Amino acid sequence: MSSGEFITSHAQAIRLFPTKLTRFRIALAAAFVLVFPFVASGYQLGLANLIFINVIAALGLNVITGFTGQISIGHGAFLGVGAYTSAYLVSVLGVPFFAAIVIAGLFTALVGSFFGVPSVRLKGLYLAIATLAAQFILEFVFRSWTSVTGGSNGMSAGSASAFGHELSGDTAFYWILLPIAALSLLFVRNLARTATGRALMAVRDHDLAAEIMGINLFRSKLIAFAIGSFLAGVAGALWGQYVGYVTPEQFTLGLSISLLVMIIVGGLGSALGCVLGAVFVTLLPEALSEGAALFVADPAAVAGTLAFLREGLFGALIIFVLVAEPAGLAARWQRIKTYWNVYPFAR
Amino acid sequence: MSLDALISLCVSGIVVGSVYAMTAIGFVVIYKTTRVINFAQGELMMVGAYICLFLTVDYKLPFWAAFLMTGIVCALLGYVIERVVLRRVIGDPIVSVIMITLGLGIVLKAIVGAIFGVDVRVLPTPIPDGAVSIGGTPVSYHYLFSMAFSVLAMCAFAAFFRWSRLGLAMRATSSDQQAAMAMGVNVGQIFALSWAIACVVSAVGGMLIATINGVNLGVSAFGLKVFPVVILGGLDSIVGAAVGGVLIGVLENVADGVFKSVFDLDGFRDVAAFVVLVLVLMIRPYGLFGQHDIERI
Q1: Residue A203 belongs to a domain
Q2: Is A309 domain-assigned?
Q3: CA triplet B73, B77, B78: central angle to 5 degrees?
Q4: Does A195 touch chain B (CB under 8 A)?
Q5: pLDDT tens track for B32-90
Q6: Chain B contacts in chain A segment 140-179 (CB below 8 A)
Q7: Is A172 strand, coil or helix?
Q8: A·B CB contacts under 8 A
Q9: Would A26 be classed as within a structural domain?
C-alpha cells in the first residue's frame, strides 16, 4: 500500500509513472491487452478494435476541449475527413497503408486548424456553434462531392497492406490499432508535462492571465486544434480502413456527441479518462442490449422500441453522470484510490 | 430560374422562417435569463407536435382545445425540466451544460420514438385545404394560418415582456441577476418560468410545422436551425430572433432553389443557414441586433 509520496527532486515530481503501484497497474493492463486477442472471440475483438479507435479520437478531442477548453461539436466530421482522405489515398492513388494514415492525419490537422481559426475570436458557446456549423458543412461536402467521396453511397477504403501482407480481419487490425492507441495515449499523457501542454491548460484556465505570462493564444489554440484533429484524422483513417468502406452516415452529429460523452464521462483533461470513457461508451449499447434480452422473451418483436429505449438510456446516462459526477470517471477512480490509500480514516 | 419560382420560394421561406422565429424566441428567452445554450429546442418542438397529435387523434379533442392543452402540458414539462435537471448544473462549465441539453434532447426523442414509432402521421386540422392567390402565387391556407399564428404569438410575447409584471421581472433578471434579487425578484422562479415559456413557444412552433408537414421524429431537425437564426439576429435579442428567423427561412429556400437549378446539387438547404452562421460569426459576431459587449480576446 502506498501511504505517501516523498518527492525530493523536480525529475521525481514530473515522472510519468510516479509510484510502484502505478507501474504495477500499467504492467497489468499491458499484460491484459497483450493476452486478450488469444482468448477473445471475434466479436469481442471487434469491440476492442472499436474501443481503440474511439480512444484515439477521444484523446484528440480531449486535447481541444479538455486541455485547452475549446468546445468542438464537429469532431465526428474531422474523423470523416481522415477516413475519406485515407480511403482516397489507398483505393485511388495506391498509397501504402501507413503513409496514407499519416497523410490523412496531417490533412485533417490542416482542416481542423482552419475551423479552429474562429476560436481566436470566439469563445465558449460561440465556438460551440461555429464547430456545429463545421460539422454540417463537412457532412454536406461528404455527401455532395460525388466524384471524390462517392456521395451518399460512400466509397471503398481499398485494401490495406503493410509489410507485404494484406491487412484484414479483426486480429490483424488489433495489432495495428493497439500500438497506435498506446502511442497516442503516451503522447497525450506526455503533452500535459511539456511547456506546450501547460500553455494549453493555462489558456483553458484563464486566457487573459495566460497571455500576460507570455503565452501566444493564437498559437496555442491552433496547436490544440492541429493536434486534436490530427488524432481525429488518424482515428478516422484507421476506422475507414478497418471497416473497409466509408459512408457519410458514419460521421454525423451523433458521432461528435458520443465522442464528447466519452471525454466528459471519462473526465475532461484526463488521458486515463479518455480510455475509461471510450470503453464505457462503446460497451454501453452492448450491455444494454444484453440486459434487454434478459427481460424480453422475444427481442426481435420489439426491436424498434428497444433501440429507442437504448438511445434514451444513453441520454439519461449523460444527464446522470453530469449531475452526479461532473468530473468524470477518472475523478471517481482517483477518489477510490485515495479511499483505500488512507483506508480506515477515509469517509 | 423564373420569377414565379423565386416568389414562391420566398413565400414558403417566410412561412418556415416564421416558425424558426418562434423557436428562436424560445431559445433566446432561455439564454437571456439563464445563460444556457439549449440544444434540445428541436426536440421540444417535436414533443409539442406529438402531444397535440395524441390529444386530437387518441382523445378526440377538438383541434383548438388540443392546441391549448398542449401549451399547458409543455409549460409544465419545461418547468419540471428546469427544476429537476438544469437547476443542478447552474455554474457548471459551459460544455457540461451543453451536454446536458444534448442528453435531454436524446432522451425526449427516444421517449417519443418508443411510444409513437417512426411513421409520419397527419395532424388533423380544421384548416381547409386549398390556396389563395397572392400576387399571382398560390399560397395554401395552412401556410397562411401558421404565418398568422406565429406573428400573433410573437406579438403576444412582446406584449408580455413589455407590460406584464412577470415580463418585467424576467427582463430584470436577464440584465442583472443580483440587482433583480435585491429588488425581490425570485430568480429561481424566473429560471423555471423561462424554461416553461421556451417549451410552450417551441411546442407552438412544432404544432405549426406539423400542420404543414405532418408529424414525425424529423420535426426535431428544425431545432438545429435556431443557431443560425439567433446568431444572425443577435443571441440576446428577441427582435433579432424574429427578424433572423424570417431572413434565414427565405435565404435557405432561395439558396436551395438556386443550387438545385444552377449546380444540380441537392440538400443545400440544410447547409446554407450554417454557411451564413459562419460568415456572421466572422464579420459581426453579435449579430444584427445583439449587444456589442460580446466577450473577445
Answers
A1: yes
A2: yes
A3: 120
A4: no
A5: 888 888 888 889 999 998 998 888 888 888 888 888 889 999 999 999 999 988 888 88
A6: 140, 143-144
A7: helix
A8: 140
A9: no
